[in-house]
Specification:
It is built from 6 helices and 3 strands. 55% of the residues lie in helices and 7% in strands. The two termini are 29 Å apart. This is Putative transcriptional regulator, MarR family. It comes from Leptospirillum ferrooxidans (strain C2-3). Residues 16-152 form the HTH marR-type domain.
């Protein structure tokens, strides 16, 4: 087992890190690296990551106000407008006025985007998830179980929403053999 030495941050010189500190550091490092890996796959397919994130967001959560998209993607209102403009020009999203707020616009996936995501989703997920093939099926099931527990903690802390298209019930916690 790897026991890293702390470089002085919250521990005495030479003391081992608590395991949760090591986990935090690895997630901090691996999260962005995994995203870069996934983005490189998107770019190979000729799609910009931000456009795919926006379509994925709408695919998972359904129609959203532009302001919510901005907050979820962590970009400016100008960037969201540009992304939506480009996707609308490609026929991938549609804009509709908000039913009760004249200032707000609702963005939803078009049937063309739904079909595109449905058709291409499996091959994309298959290529991106290739990294997990270094683990046995049992290890993948255990890892998945841990990540679902972490997700539940983040839901309880109001950082994530429970209901999405891909993960919308407790049944998702049951690993399935391929």
């Amino acid at each position: 087992m790897h026991m890293a030495k702390d470089n002085g941050c919250n521990a005495g010189e030479g003391e081992p890190n608590p395991l949760r500190h090591q986990l935090m550091k690895l997630f901090w490092m691996l999260g962005p690296a995994y995203i870069r890996w996934a983005e490189s796959i998107m770019e190979m397919d000729g799609h910009t990551p931000k456009r795919m994130y926006l379509m994925g967001l709408l695919f998972e959560y359904g129609p959203m106000m532009m302001s919510n998209i901005k907050d979820r993607l962590g970009v400016t209102a100008t960037n969201v407008t540009a992304l939506v403009d480009a996707l609308e020009k490609e026929g991938m999203v549609e804009r509709k006025p908000h039913p009760t707020d004249r200032r707000a616009t609702i963005v939803s996936l078009s049937s063309k985007a739904e079909e595109f995501l449905t058709v291409n989703c499996f091959s994309f997920k298959d290529r991106v998830s290739e990294l997990f093939s270094v683990f046995s099926v049992e290890e993948q099931e255990q890892f998945l179980s841990f990540l679902f527990r972490m997700r539940d903690v983040l839901i309880d802390k109001k950082i994530l929403e429970r209901k999405t298209r891909s993960f919308d019930s407790k049944e998702d916690h049951t690993p399935q053999n391929p």
